[in-house]
Amino acid sequence: MTSELTVLAAHTDRLLTTARALADPAAPSLCEGWSRGHVLTHVARNADAIGRLASWAVTGDRQEMYPGGAEARDREIEDGAHRPPAELVADLTDTAADLVPRLEALQGPLAAAEVEMRGGLVVPASQLPFLRLREVVYHHVDLDAGFGFPDVEPELLRRFVADAVHRLRLGRRPPGLVVRTDEGDSWTVGDGGTTVTGPLAGVLLWLARRDESGVHALDGQVPSLPRGA
Questions:
Q1: Backbone dihedral angles phi then psi of residue 96, each to the nearest 5 degrees
Q2: How many angstroms separate the CA atoms of 194 and 73, rounded?
Q3: Which of 1, 63, 77, 107 could make an S-S bridge to 56, C-beta 3.0–4.6 Å?
């Protein structure tokens, strides 16, 4: 887990560097309906949320990921999205720093081996550092401010693609796919009916953000993917 926390720290620093340089947080992001300010506020609130789950795992005292549910979460993001740039960056910085010791504590004895994400998804507490890392990297890309999946180290891209494929497989009606990368990786979903290929970064952009610009199908059209997988 130590190496994962090291990677998280590095990508958090990269995100903060981008955030500090943003001239206009009100500019649109790649998340439909969200400005860059919405994205930055969401990442900060996610740090709070992951921290609550980490504390639950360590103490055994159950905590909601987002107290008040989806409505309260969405309201907090909307309320925070329009703050001045300095406030957005300070919030992002402070919440990321507060999360570090909470994630480090997961390396010790755990009172709860599993915790519940929003929507009722139960995950091993040991996965929380990876889930936070995924949030930081994906939303760094969503800022549309010069950082993209090609800027992510290949071994991490590979983990993200494997994770996205795993989540597709868990769906009620997983699409029939072979996902193949130019770097030589291959994953099968369902009956493997359609082969989609491209570089790791392009494949992840498709799987994570439904953007087909970096992939192509070998036998027909690139299939539409279910939302939320």
A1: -65, -40
A2: 38
A3: 63
Question: Do 179 and 199 have their domain in common?
Answer: yes
Cα gap 148→43, rounded to integer Å: 17
Buried b (16+ CB within 10 A) or exposed e, 77-105: beebbebebeebbebbbebbeebeebbee
What's the pLDDT tens digit per position in 57-99?
Answer: 999 999 999 999 999 999 999 999 999 999 999 999 999 999 9
Contacts of 63 (CB under 8 A, 6+ apart): 52, 53, 55, 56
List of residues 6+ apart from 26 with CB closer than 8 A: 35, 36, 37, 82
What is the residue range of 209's domain?
153-217
pTM: 0.95
CA–CA separation, 141 and 204 (whole Å): 11
Reduce the DSSP state of residue 179 to 3 states and report it. strand
